[in-house]
What does this fold into?
Amino acid sequence: MPLSPHTSWPVQNANARFSELPAANLVPELRKSRPQGTVRARIKAIPDIELHLSAVTLGEIQANVEVTCTQNLAKAAKIEAWIDRVVAVYNVLSRDAKTFRPWAQLMFCQPDIVSEDTMIAVCVIQHYLTVSTRNMRGFANFQILLINPFATQS
It folds into this structure.
């Protein structure tokens, strides 16, 4: 995904120490009674202070809760309570003008389908984070650090 012609902001330095930002497809895995072993090991190995969550990811998870509400209110209520606990533990990174401006530059002439991944990529670059995700393809066009904890050996 090319930047617009007037955009220039730093690419992540692969030698720097990065905190981690789990993506929307990883966070619900942690809610399972028996999450995948490599995912559980990856998250447990990271100090809470270095775990971050994008407000975009929370929005994606909440959108799924809204669908669940139409099918099973009790299950939705349990997920809502779980989200509240997650928000209490993770450092939630909100979005502001410093985020939306580069997001708009990256989104220029791009399909809306990449909007959330683009927002997460901007957040990752701004906060020197690594994205933990199963969706490696969705972030492949960004010059960011990625890890697929579903594929990592513990």
The chain has six helices and five strands. The radius of gyration is 16 Å.
